[in-house]
Specification:
The chain is an all-alpha fold and 52 residues long. The longest helix has 16 residues. It is flat.
């Protein structure tokens, strides 16, 4: 049986400011990072079989 989902905590003070800044200024990723992530994804999907 599933457990109930808890409420999301509210951020205050410096934590809230850092979170807001991170949302407004996302870090850019390089093409190398995208290709690396895609290669990992492809590897996992190649080695995995899902039977539904």
């Amino acid at each position: 049986m599933a457990r109930p989902i808890k409420e999301t905590p509210t951020l205050y003070g410096e934590d809230a400011r850092r979170f807001e800044y991170a949302i407004e200024h996302p870090q850019a990723i390089t093409l190398e990072e995208v290709k690396y992530a895609q290669s990992i994804y492809d590897s996992v999907m190649k080695n995995t079989t899902f039977q539904f």
